[in-house]
Design a protein that fits this description.
Layout lengths: L1 H18 L7 H9 L20 E2 L5 E2 L2 H11 L6 E5 L5 H9 L2 E6 L2 H13 L5 E5 L12 E10 L4 H4 L2 E13 L2 E11 L2 E10 L16
Parallel strand pairs: 3-4, 3-6, 4-5, 6-7
Antiparallel strand pairs: 1-2, 7-8, 8-9
C-alpha cells in the first residue's frame, strides 16, 4: 500500500512541478498523464527515475524524452479522436500510448529491433490496442497508410524533413524538435493547402537526435 501511495505522490508531483509549469494546462492531457502509467514504460533498472525531470536511458543508446517535453508536444499537436498518427522513434512506447489515447490510430516506427519489441510489449501490457509499432527507419520508409493527420518526431532533427510534409493531409500537423545543441525549438508545421505550410516554434528544448535524418553541413562559406 505504502509503495503504491509513494508512486501516486511521485506521479502527482511530476504533473504539478514539471508539467503544469511548462504551460501544459490542457485538462485532457493532464488527466492522461495521471492514468497512463509511465513507470510501466521505463526499463527496470531506471524505475526509480520514472517521474524525474530528465531523459531516461533505453537500450542501445536511445532514451525516453523528459515527461514535460512529451506532455507539451502532445498538448500542442491538439489531436482529435478521428485522427491517424505516425510517430517516428517509438523508444519505450510511452509517447505512442499517450497519442493512442487521443487519436484513432497510431503507427510508430522504431529503427532499433530491441526497442521496437520493448515498445510493443509495453503497449500490450498497458492495454493500448490502437497503436502499432513497426521496426522501420522512419527517415526512409513511409507506411502505406499515408497520408496522416499528425506526424510526430520523438527526437530531434537538424531541420524539418520536407519529404515528411508531403505525407500530411490538408489540415495535418507535424511536430518535431529542430536545431542543434545547445538550442533547439519545438516546431509545428500545419499543412494549409497542397503547397502551403504554416510553421510555428513556440518553445525551446533539447532532445537527442533521431537516426538517419539529413544533417546539413554546419560550415558556412
Amino acid at each position: 500500500m505504502h509503495a503504491a501511495m509513494n508512486l501516486e505522490q511521485a506521479r502527482f508531483n511530476m504533473i504539478e512541478q514539471q508539467i503544469r509549469p511548462w504551460d501544459v494546462l490542457d485538462a485532457h492531457v493532464l488527466h492522461l498523464l495521471s492514468v497512463v502509467r509511465r513507470e510501466e514504460f521505463v526499463p527496470a533498472a531506471h524505475k526509480a527515475l520514472a517521474f524525474a525531470d530528465m531523459e531516461i536511458p533505453l537500450p542501445n543508446g536511445q532514451c525516453m524524452l523528459a515527461p514535460r517535453v512529451e506532455a507539451r508536444m502532445l498538448q500542442d499537436l491538439v489531436l482529435q479522436k478521428h485522427e491517424k498518427v505516425l510517430e517516428i522513434g517509438a523508444g519505450s512506447g510511452f509517447m505512442a500510448a499517450l497519442l493512442a489515447h487521443r487519436a484513432q490510430r497510431v503507427i510508430s516506427l522504431e529503427i532499433d529491433a530491441e526497442l521496437a519489441a520493448l515498445a510493443r510489449s509495453h503497449l500490450q501490457l498497458a492495454g493500448v490496442h490502437n497503436a502499432e509499432v513497426r521496426q522501420q527507419d522512419g527517415a526512409h520508409h513511409m507506411p502505406v497508410e499515408a497520408p496522416f493527420d499528425v506526424i510526430v518526431l520523438s527526437g530531434s532533427v537538424a531541420q524539418v524533413p520536407q519529404a515528411l510534409l508531403q505525407h500530411l493531409k490538408i489540415g495535418g500537423r507535424l511536430g518535431a524538435i529542430v536545431g542543434d545543441e545547445p538550442m533547439m525549438r519545438a516546431s509545428f508545421v500545419t499543412r494549409i493547402g497542397e503547397s502551403d505550410f504554416r510553421t510555428i516554434g513556440p518553445w525551446d528544448t533539447v532532445a537527442p537526435r533521431l537516426r538517419n535524418f539529413v544533417e546539413p553541413s554546419r560550415f558556412r562559406f
